[in-house]
Specification:
- It is globular, with a radius of gyration of 18 Å.
- A hairpin with a 2-residue loop joins strand 9 and strand 10.
- With 208 residues, the chain is α+β, with helices and mostly antiparallel strands.
- The chain is built from 4 helices and 10 strands.
- The longest helix has 15 residues.
- It is 24% helix and 34% strand.
Length: 208
């Protein structure tokens, strides 16, 4: 039995949105400047609200209960992806991402609520302002300043597909498994908006 799990809180994406992410990645990969990028698997894409790190398994029920309380006070809302961006900026990017247009304010408020509810459980709030985004790629560590700048120059001119709107109706606690072939994600809990928390079976000890 694992003593801890690497976990985070996220908004999951429907397959239709993931298909559009794949199309955008395919378009970007046609540019020579993106050869220094390591691409995220679009079929594992999600919008992270809070990264928790390594969490002892006995603490998971309290985390889930806190997320259930946040979700009970929320109503579903519409989210739509739009525009490319880069962290920390387009002049020396290390991460390439697609941002959120519609639903941005609701996501920021949701992330703030998650931060507030998990703080009493010992999870420190992020110092940086929350920026809703989906990671498309990370630049290799050996990328030169020139290569980074050339990739950053793609952010403005590259057209982004007309992403379909999707309804955000729950938050999930997700486990991250670091495997040789890449990260794999497993949902541990699902907290639906506007619904009373379900009775949870005490089966966390079965996690391996």
């Amino acid at each position: 039995m694992a003593e801890t799990v690497r976990a985070f809180v996220a908004v999951e994406l429907p397959d239709e949105v993931k298909e559009y992410l794949w199309q955008l990645q395919e378009k970007l990969q046609s540019y020579a400047a993106t050869r220094v990028a390591r691409w995220a698997d679009p079929w594992e894409a999600h919008l992270t609200l809070k990264f928790l790190g390594e969490v002892p398994i006995p603490r998971l029920p309290a985390i889930v209960a806190s997320l259930d309380e946040v979700a009970e006070r929320r109503e579903p809302f519409t989210m739509r992806l739009a525009d490319l961006g880069a962290f920390p900026n387009v002049y020396r990017p290390s991460v390439l991402w697609v941002g959120v247009e519609e639903g941005r304010q609701q996501l920021v408020a949701l992330a703030d609520s998650v931060e507030a509810t998990l703080k009493p459980l010992g999870f420190k709030p992020e110092r940086r302002e929350f920026q809703p985004h989906i990671t498309l790629a990370r630049l290799r560590r050996d990328a030169t300043p020139r290569q980074r700048r050339e990739l950053g120059e793609l952010v403005g001119p590259t057209p982004v597909p007309d992403f379909p709107a999707t309804t955000v109706s729950h938050v999930s606690l997700i486990r991250s498994l670091l495997l040789p072939q890449g990260s794999r994600y497993v949902r541990l809990s699902h907290s639906a908006f506007g619904e009373a928390p379900p009775l949870q079976a005490d089966d966390w000890e079965d996690i391996e």
